[in-house]
Amino acid sequence: MCCWGPEVNSLLSQSINLFAVVLLVLAFAMIAQRRILTLIHLFTLQGAALAAATLIVGYLTGQHHLYFSAALTFVLKVVLIPILLHRVILRLNVRWDVETLFNIPTTMLIGIVLVIFAFNLAAPIAGLSTSIARGTLGIALACVLLSFLMMIVRAKAVPQVIGFLSMENGLFFAATAATSGMPMIVELGIAFDVLVGILILGVFMFQIREQFDSLDIRHLEKLKED
Amino acid sequence: MLLLDWILIVVAGWLVLGFAGIGVLRNTAFVARVLFPAGAALGVALAGLALAGLLGTPETAVLALGLPDLPFHLRLDGLSAFFLLVIGAISVGVSVFAAGYFRHGEGTPPGLMCLEYHLFLASMALVVLADDAYAFMVMWETMALSSFFLVTANHRVPAIREAGFLYLLIAHIGAIGILLCFGVLQANTGDYTFANMRAQSLSPLWASVAFLLATLGFGAKAGILPLHVWLPEAHPAAPSPVSALMSAVMLKTAIYGLLRVSFDLLGAQQWWWGVLLLAVGLATALYGVVFSAVQTDMKRLLAYSSIENIGLLFVGIGLGVLFNAYGMKALSALALTAALYHVVGHAFFKSLLFLATGSVLHATGERSLGKLGGLMRRMPWVAWLSLVGVLASSGLPPFSGFVSEWLLLQSFLFTTGLPDSFLNMLVPVLAAGIALVAALAGYTMVKFYGVIFLGQPREPKLADAHPASPLERAGLVWLGAGCVLLGLFPVAAIGLIDPVTRLLVGGGIAETVRANGWLLLSPSSPDRASYSPLVFLGVVSLAVLLAVVLVRKLYHGRLRRAPAWDCGYPAQTARMQDTAEGFGQPIRQIFEPFFRMRRELPSPFDAKPHYRVTIEDHFWHWLYLPVARLTSGIARGVGRLQQGRIAIYLLYSFVTLIVLLLVVKS
Question: What are the pLDDT digits (tens) for B153-196?
Fold first, then answer.
């Protein structure tokens, strides 16, 4: 399959690491970003990087089902979901700046601690893995934790949804990195889940907006039963 | 076709009837006149098939229901056939009665009631047929849930909802015990069929753990101390046919489960299990009967009486375990025969009495004994048939209760043969306790019968009490006939119990009993003890007849009617009769430490005097309320975690994730 010779292959292996780093940097950028529109752009970029990384892993390992995964990722995370999100923020008119619960530098510092933790954690696991992209497992884990952190610190509904989606990106990348991708049926299932999830969350956002005239999820505290 | 297939067809028929009820949700006439009698016919069929199964060989079947790769295993052997017989026979009487009873919608529409009722019957039948833990638990829970909905038929009354909740709670505590018991029994093989559990040989420690869990689990359903509190709440709350089925049959499925686990699934038994069952059983019986004696609500009285009878059953089973642990097969068979006899006997007389209270309730709208009285003249059928039930319940010859209590006391007399000197001394003391319970049960039944049916009506509205409908009478007659036949032909009945004891302990008493002919019942040898109910009945009837004739002859012509002597109080009213409270008063005095009593005595100068006494259960204050307080305290503590902020909830997940990752790493 390696019709381009070893140099090209080694370059491609390097490029997996490159895309992994792009993912991580984008995750940090999302934490630091205040504007929702830019957040969506960043998310689109992350999806594109993920699709590219999957494509290359698929090519290098000869596992053709990864091509399908990559195509699916591209269609969903680069085209469909960003379009949905754009429509949501247009309809809700929420392109304003995002409020955070912590200030952004503190969050970034916590994020750095999380990245160190993730790398420390992934080191022994990566040693066991035989996959071509095993070195990037730590990055994938860091992406998951960073997205989780973003979900915690954001006070508005739309950034939380983006955090959730970006966490899924991290998970997907981790699966690709550790085991050359999940079985096709699992991937299809997850993709479908994400799509349905985003639709439901969209409905929720409209409902929250109806109810409280705002997308600030702090209003939901009122729903607590005493 | 196997017998088991026919039985399954009957059970499926019950389900079909139930779902047919949904189709005619509010058509009371159709449900009462067609569906319930059809259910009774299926009950007859089930009883007949179970009888054939009792005398036949074990059969197994695999039902392709349930989860993939996890089908329901069913098995029909002597033990399950015996309990199926009880379920079938009792359901006939109760269904016929119910056909006349559900006249107008009470809360739940009649069609839904029909579904719940037949689902309840079908699940009980499948519980005793189940041959793996999965099928057993599914059916057990179906039984608990369907009976819960039957109990809360009148759910608009808050007290009934509370009673239903208490029942469901304790039923689930029991279910957890049973589930854990099966978990121990399968001994880490992952195979939950009963066949596999039989094949395992557990260490004494684990066998004891399984036994204790089974006692807890089935005891909660049966209503042993201290898990008995749901019975006196749920039975009065439920419609009478339902209370009858629950008390007569559902409690027995718990006895079935205990027998199945402790004799069939667990191999070798230990002697202290028997002692534990004896102690718990006696305490329950005594507690039940003492509380029963002071009740003033007729259904509560019967509910406590059920607790007492369950206690007696536990005593019988405990004795069976004790003898079996020392290898005395024949005596163990005797004790188990007594217990199983009592299972059938209690099923018949308790359902009869519960249904009779239903008739009284419908006729008068009163459950309180203080407002009844003199119903013998208004409802003669119900009164005479209740008399049969009451006599059987008091353990008087020649009815069913006497045979079982007599056999139980007989088996107690053999405990001197036990190789342990300590037990030799202790167990006869328990026999004295049983005698006390039997005597108090008689006292309670005199109160129950005397206050409801004898004397003068205590309220003017009782004059309008209408007699029971023909279908109700038919149901009562069926159950009354059961009490009489079981009392008169004990040898034949023991012949039917024999296959069960052969299965459980490998011995039976039928041969010894049959050796003396069908007339004379003698469990060991006629020199030692014997009882001949027909002769007894003949002598008693003859004596009564003779006395009547003599009195008529001697006093012939000298009979005159005059007002009774009024003790010097000319202004007498029906309220001056001995009341239920008054009748129970000596028991309240003697057994005072048992109760938590509050009394309001009127002052002599009160124009409208009020007397009020409330009797509560100590267990409620000592055990249940502290547990409830502890639970709500913990719940409040956990409630502090509920901040209502999504960020906080996410943080919980996040921290958990990090901690788990750290744990995995190290």
Answer: 888 888 899 999 999 999 999 999 999 999 999 888 888 889 88
Closest CB to A217 among B646, B654, B661 = B646
Between CA B178 and CA B217 the distance in angstroms is 5
Q: Is the Cβ–Cβ distance between B250 and B238 less than 8 Å?
A: no
> With an 8 Å Cβ cutoff, are B661 and A121 in contact?
yes
Q: Is residue B377 situated within a structural domain?
A: yes
Range of the domain at B431: 285-343+366-531
Question: H/E element holding A226?
Answer: none
No. of helices (H) and no. of strands (E), chain A: 8, 0
* List of chain A residues whose C-beta atoms are within 8 Å of the C-beta of residue B642: 224
Give me the count of residues in chain A.
Answer: 226
Q: Does residue B248 sit within a domain?
A: no
Query: Which amino acid is located at B24 in the chain?
Result: V
A and B: number of Cβ contacts within 8 A: 37
The tokens describing B331, both together, are 């005596």
- Are A15 and A55 in contact by the 8 Å Cβ rule? The answer is no
Interface test mutation site (partner B, options A151, A204, A216, max chain B beta carbons within 10 A): A151
Say how many CA atoms lie within 13 Å of B428 toward its Cβ: 10
Measure CA A27 to chain center.
8
Query: What DSSP assignment string belongs to B38-77?
Result: HHHHHHHHHHHHHHHHHHS--EEEEEEEEETTEEEEEEE-
Q: What is the ipTM of this complex?
A: 0.81
Helix (H, G, I), strand (E, B), or coil: what is residue B600?
A: strand
**Chain B: residues touching A (Cβ < 8 Å):** 642-647, 650-651, 653-654, 657-658, 661, 665
pLDDT tens digit sequence for A164-185: 889 888 888 888 776 666 677 7
Please say if the pLDDT value at position B25 is more than 70.
Answer: yes
Nearest CA in chain B to A217: B646
